[in-house]
Amino acid sequence: MLAFYADHFVLPLPPGHRFPMRKYSMLRDAVVREVSGLELHEAPRAGDDALALAHSADYIADVSAGRLDPARQREIGFPWSHEMVERSRRSAGATIAACRTALTQGIAVNLAGGTHHAYADKGGGFCVFNDAAIAARQLQRDGQVRRVAVIDLDVHQGNGTASILRDDPSVFTLSLHGEKNYPFRKEASDLDVGLPDGCDDDSYAAALAGALETLKTRFAPDLLIYLAGADPHEDDRLGRLRLTMAGLARRDTMVFDFALSHRLPIAVAMAGGYGNQIENTVAVHTQTVALAAACHARYSALDTGFASPVAATAA
């Protein structure tokens, strides 16, 4: 299974900053040790033409040149730097690459990504460019897919993704999140499932099963983009839910089984994770990658190829 990484494009942060930048290099080390059958590739760089599929030209230019005013930079949560811009472009490029790979191999992984709080004209919540929205539209523009579903299981609602894609019937946005958690002003996804604080494994699994059934009933995608946040974990300092490692494994397995049962290619991004112990966040992400690799093996055993659905229809 192919996995795309960008952890060596380090975003410099001041001492004591709460974003766990180290988790990305720790994750790459962990999956190399613990997940067999991985083929790691450096994340490609998303250019302005790709970013413009989801973001305004002025916003892209202001971010790239460091012209954001202090308020907009604070909303992102990172100090501006050339490294911030490069890493954000690589993160978007990795999700595009994972989507393209999934079309032929069934599944692929971005070892970062899931930057779902970025709007068309502003960033937020440690998100600069919205990789899922960019990737969905890039593959549509390339003629590789017509319809994409974004399954966002980060603990925080995918407000930026919902906003960017609100009037786009060709992309279905599903967000399962903490109802009382950030962002406190939610946007309208195609399907929002708000969860109470303290939600446990069984309650979460029941809510996810219902959401996937609704997705199946309402939309027929050619591709899934899965944001597998680690922050529903019970140790997460920002999550407020109570999922165990076993519960998160059940979550991932449910999504991968959904993809397999419908013969849908799926690209996976890591999204958020802010454990009291960074090792716990890395363990959740590593478990997701391991389950994705197992899903890849099951895809490989199918007698159905994963050539472009659009090309197959045209043929």
Overview of the structural elements:
With 315 residues, this protein is α/β, with parallel strands linked by helices. It has a single domain, classed as Arginase, Chain A. Helices cover 44% and strands 12% of the residues. The chain is built from eleven helices and eight strands. The chain has an eight-stranded parallel sheet, with helices on both faces. Strand 4, helix 7 and strand 5 form a beta-alpha-beta unit. Helix 1 (22-34) packs across helix 10, helix 5 (82-105) packs across helix 6 and helix 9 runs parallel beside helix 10. The protein is globular. The chain starts with a strand and ends with a helix. The model is unreliable at 311-315 (pLDDT under 50).
Compact summary:
The protein has helices at 22-34, 48-51, 57-65, 70-76, 82-105, 131-141, 159-164, 201-218, 245-261, 278-301, 309-314; strands at 2-5, 39-42, 107-110, 148-152, 171-178, 191-195, 223-227, 266-269.
Any descriptors?
single chain, 315 residues, alpha/beta, Arginase, Chain A, eight-stranded parallel sheet, 11 helices, 8 strands, 44% helix, globular, disordered C terminus, His_deacetylse_dom
Distance between the termini: 28 Å
State the low-pLDDT regions, or none. Answer: 311-315
* Backbone shape: globular
Total domains? 1
Radius of gyration (CA) equals 18 Å
Let me know the largest β-sheet. Answer: 8 strands, parallel
- What is the count of helical runs? 11
How many runs of DSSP E, i.e. beta strands? Answer: 8
Whole-number average pLDDT? 95
The proportion of residues in beta strands is 5-15%
Element pattern in H and E: EHEHHHHEHEHEEHEHEHH
The portion of residues assigned to helices is: 40-55%
By helix and strand content, what is the structural category?
alpha/beta
What is the assigned CATH homologous superfamily? Histone deacetylase domain
Strand order of the largest sheet: 2-1-3-8-7-4-5-6
CATH topology descriptor: Arginase, Chain A
CATH architectural grouping: 3-Layer(aba) Sandwich
The CATH class is identified as Alpha Beta
